[in-house]
Amino acid sequence: MRSPSLPRRSTVREKMSNPNKLCGATRDTVYEHASNNYGTLPEHLWKPFPLYSVFRRVDNKKWYAIIMDIPKNKLGLDGDERVDVLDVKCTPAAQQMLLGQSGFLPAYHLSRKNWISVLLDGTVDKATVCRLLDDSYVIASGKSPKAKRTRPTSVLVPVNPKYYDIEKAFAESENDTILWKQSSSVIVGDTVYLYIAAPYSCVRYKCEAVEVDIPYDYADENVSMNHVMKIRRLHTYGENEFGIDRLKKRGVVSVRGPRSIPYILRTELEESSESGT
User: Fold this and answer.
1) 3-state SS, residue 85
2) Cut 0.70: pTM above it
3) Are 234 and 203 in contact (CB under 8 A)?
4) What sign has the CA pseudo-torsion 66, 70, 73, 77?
5) Residues 177, 192: contact at Cβ < 8 Å?
6) Exposed e or buried b for every residue in 207-233, given b needs 16+ CB within 10 A?
7) Quick one: pLDDT at residue 23?
8) Strand, coil or helix: what is 153?
């Protein structure tokens, strides 16, 4: 079953051979999304910087995005050539999930508490950039961002086998459905990939979140929770299929908490589950 947030795309081999051409976001991606979805056009406020583009909400005139062309060395990257960078508003939880992934940097020139920088050189895929623009647009409204996301996405969630026998839980479950500790970043329809920690260190299950924010009062020496979510298993991966070495090559060095998934890894997980291998 394919995640609802991901349209069908080219194969992983094609993506890796020419990532910029196939799905990488650029300045034009932002221009098109902002115009088509919010009716906003870029404003060029500084004559010395003609390529700086600011985007505002129509109602309250607050910024929700800015594009700047910045020398790479000012971003902590190698080289002095200029690269387009998108700054968008985001929550601290989103920052934690994104920073450390390829293409995401602490906000340049704006508050690092409320903004994040995204490279527009093809490193980050179009769907992710458009989703971040949607989130930023909502945050700029001044309303609470807690319920802002409505489109399903994919999340990587860790499981500690020392504290919970996940295989036994699925084996004894009804309709391959179990309760799991609620992550505030998960909504109904999200694809939840369960990463089993050491000694296995691999992505083992693909699941779908079918219900969230279920009241559940529980605490022991290892975990405490007052809400859980219900997840349904869709696919089981081989223990050697998506191990930590493969994940590191795709930009996932560790899985200490719920986090987003780099595009190439997400595509490989989808293709593997759909092929049944």
Assistant:
1) strand
2) no
3) no
4) positive
5) no
6) bbbeebeeeeeeeeeeeeeeebbbbbb
7) 64
8) coil
